[in-house]
Amino acid sequence: MKNCVQTTMFLLFIVLIQSQSFAQKSTKDSTGLPGDHFSLQGALEMFQRSKSPEEFEKLINTKEKNVNNLDLNKDGKTDYIKVIDKTEKKVHAFILQVPVSQNENQDIAVIELEKTGDTTAIIQIVGDKDLYGKDVIIEPQGNKNEPANIDEHAKKQTGPTHAFEFYTTTTVIINLWYWPCVTFVYSPVYTPWISPWAWAYYPSWWVAWRPVSWYSWYPVCAVYNHSYIAVNTYRVSSAHYLYTPYRTGSATVTRQAGVVVGPNGAGAGVKTTVTGPNGKSATRVSGAAVGPNGAVRGTSVRRGRW
Question: Is 0.90 surpassed by the pTM of this model?
Answer without folding.
Answer: no
